[in-house]
Amino acid sequence: MNLTEKDTASFSPQRRQLMRQLAALGMSSGVPGLALAQSAPLQQDPWRQAERIIATLSQSLQFRAADYPVTHYGALSCTVRKVAAWISFEEQGMLDTPDEHAPDCYQAIRTAIETCHREGGGRVLIPAGNWYCAGPIVLLSNVHLHLESGAHLYFSHRPDDYARYGEVDCGEQGRLTVSRWQSNDCLNYSPMIYANNQENIALTGADWSSVLDGQGGVPFNDYGDCWWTWKGKLKTINAIAQGSVPNYREGKPSENAVNPLNVGSLRQLVVSISPQQQALIQGAGDKWRADANYLPALSEAAVPLAQRVFGKGHYLRPPMIQLISCRRVLLQGYEVRNTPFWQHHPVNCRQLVIRGVHAKSHGPNSDGFDPEACDHVLVENCTFDSGDDCIAIKAGKNLDTQFGPSQNIVIQNCTMQSGHGAVTLGSEMAGGIQHVYAQNLLFENRHWKTNPLNTAIRLKTNLNRGGYLKHFYVRNVRIPNGVQTSPSFYSSLPGSPIQSKTVATAAGAVITFDCDYTPVSDNVRIRPPVVENIDISDITVGNVQTARGEFSCYQAIVILGPVASDYNGSAPAPVIHPVRNVRIHNCDFGNPVAADAPLYLYNVQDLQLSEVKIAGKRYHQRYSA
């Protein structure tokens, strides 16, 4: 759908001004269509391509030999005090936070970065000590921001501090930043560390005592609300942990509650929208007006970025670190903790390395690393201890696919602790994902008794998210403490051939391909995904002692292909392809609880198991279901 002159004629003067500002920033005021990428044939030796990607990214970034300590620009360290705060979905503890009148280093850090950039680049230094920053750090080309050993940078936990300094004046909603939230473009609260269209940038720490602290669980009002409260009511409840949201009670404002600031009809924004399209996007009732649903609806209706204004009065939490359209990026050697939302979210970046980072946040949606529509990415020697997926590769959602696919990504020598999925692809993948290589990984699952890893290797998509996954290769993975040994089921749509709460796609399997991910959450279901050419080998899964016995998982493999009955577009329906050409070999899945039914397969063509051991039984067989 394209905007007409009739549509834009209805824009307010403020919205027209926003569009002019966005144009000056090089941002499109419309929504480009899907950028398709052709997939190469199945490679004879895919790991040679992985070696080429690693070699391409092995060269160090170069910076001018000049240091800019933030203390030279007025930064003062602070003292800290203990406060009661949330440390996970369900736990509270005493955490350090800056004293109430701590000096704000925002301006000093900004001036140091801008001076370094203006003078040709170099290194901006944050020394050892406690530092408080009540606003975003914006990285610029040729700047290397480095935290020395013992430097602990506390970002303000007050949302309004991230609606003060953005590049776009949105009136009552604040000064906002061009951002992307769950793979949809928007104007929103600024991420705590941000860059847009920069090159040759680095964010590093001396070691894991160099801490970037988002304070996501520290209360910001007298009611005890924090960033994490804004998650609102959970749609999917894990069988073991994550059954509630910090300080949330029914009726509190959140991303999942109807927001009266959002328009009552899409026709108020796009006057040319047809009644049929409006009904499809909005669905039944008013739920589409909750912020988390409203933004995807704006994308489906091709509403321009200038009208996707969130910020103050809205409840979309920003990612901790977001880099958009950047080139030659290094993230290395620090610890990030307690982030409001996703921990690292690079979008449309090229030649990006994340190395030796400790990503530790147990709050809602605390994904460790979410590269989106990125090309040539290396993830190595990192440890992920996450409240959501450890790594989740993404590529746009709804009509926001202008940046194309995520591709040429290598993940190696990393350790994963708690989380939903250790290595995940999706769920937002409308632009496609291809040529991903994961090797030499330890899914340690240290917290298996209380907060276990839900699943190890995970694909998430559906007839809304669509897209494709092609050429995904995994080898040499150790999972000594298994994954969650109880099932967490998904809810199917009315009329589905699959009964709700019978398939353990949410948690419980070692390998999960879920092509019907939370279908009840998406009104528009017109884009069938394509999933093919996947090779997984040398996975070793250990057992743990539970009250019921010694088990490694609930099931070994769950492959739920696309469900054709979910389609709700116009006739004729497109072809719904099965998951196809998947090879799993040289693996030992330990002892599943459901040893009598270790596999669940639906709409799968040519799954090949060879030298696969499950509960002591060896499998050499091809399956189609």
From TrEMBL:
Origin: domain of life: Bacteria
Pfam families: Glyco_hydro_28
UniProt keyword Hydrolase, yes or no: yes
Record carries keyword RNA-binding: no
Molecular function, one GO term: hydrolase activity
SMART domains, per the entry: PbH1 (SM00710)
Keywords, in A-Z order: Glycosidase, Hydrolase
Similarity comment: family membership: Belongs to the glycosyl hydrolase 28 family.
Protein name, UniProt field: Glycoside hydrolase family 28 protein
Organism of derivation: Undibacterium curvum
